Amino acid sequence: MLIGQKGSRMTDHAPRHATGRPADGGRRGAGELEAEILAILRRAAGPLTPGEVRDQLASGRRAELSYSTVVTIMFRLHAKGLLARQQAGRGYAYRPLDEASIAAGQMSHALGSGTDRGAVLSRFVSGLSRRDAQRLRRLLDSDPAAANPAAGDPAQPQE
Fold it and tell me: Please, are residues 42 and 48 in contact by the beta-carbon 8 Å criterion?
């Protein structure tokens, strides 16, 4: 639905591709370009630069995306914690993170959000199944830094 002059509503009847993109080459839907970039990176054998991703996006398209658009989208995906990056010349090459890494990043973000860390951890642990709690206990027991959490985090006060 579009808003015309004086607030009247108009319907967007433009023909669309199966992807939902306008057939006339107009703008993509929100998140569609992010999804395309993630799909390219997941299919890749290794990390890709924005230029390499742009080349793959350009194949089969009428309109080419600017390099800066691809860089911006990949930077945003990295900031969201969906991509890892490594130095590649003067820029970066990116690779998608696996689901476990994404979940761990979300947990780290929740712990670092300024809320009561003890409360966050307590609620997390209380929601674990017995099997997952045992797995967590084994992981903590096998990690020497876990025995003294403040040793690995200079900003964390001793308890």
Answer: no
